[in-house]
Task: structure prediction
Amino acid sequence: MKNIFEFAEACLHEATIDRKLSLTHQAWLALQEDQLSFISVKAVEPIARVTFPKTPLLLPPREMPKRKIGSAEGVAAFFHAIAHVEFVAIYLAWDIIYRFRGLPDQFYKDWLKVADEEAQHFELIRSHLQIMQINYGDLPAHNGLWDHAKDTSDNLLARVAMVPRCMEARGLDVTPAIIEKFKRQGDNASVALLNRILTDEVGHVERGSYWFKFFCKQQNIEPEAKYQALIKQYYLGGKPKGPFNREMRIIAGFSHAELDWLENTTL
Result:
């Protein structure tokens, strides 16, 4: 298998977690060895065909149990939730590759890099959970991230606006404060893991910003106005609530005008 779209289809339709991780790393290695094709040869299957493992049990976000990271159970639940986010992020990276064809090769290379890094994150968190005597799938999770993929399955600009530039960007806002909590608890392993993820996520959001602006320019669309319109259309509640990490979001390609709009509570 040396075609990126064949890798993508296999990963999206493969329910076995370890097989999905292995395929992702194989694809990244094939790219490094200049052995990966970007020629689309098969039709795109509907997003409803994407396959997830039988566990974890998926619940609506409002039904998820609330646990604080001050207890061992709370820490385990927190990292289980993060593991699920990173696992779904592998799907999201593969799906944007698979679903949207005829784009520059660099677009697919960028999102394959994201897929491989998300797979690394998941593997690191899964090992961290196992130290706490818990496996991924033992606790429930919610699938709000994948709902955004389904909502934007036919709209590339909406996908880029909603996934890297909205949902993933929230990690830039909230993760630094969580890292500080673990520092105060003396949990150096959790701090190192979250710092690694945060560093990579800045790059993922930046790639989202780059390609959002690229496609807006290609279509002669003003990007800041389009971003606002798409967030209002696809984000439940109109737009995310702050506070926002301006410093990291600027590094990740947000403009000051976009951040001013996000911070303004009126729509």
About this structure: The first helix runs from residue 4 to 12.
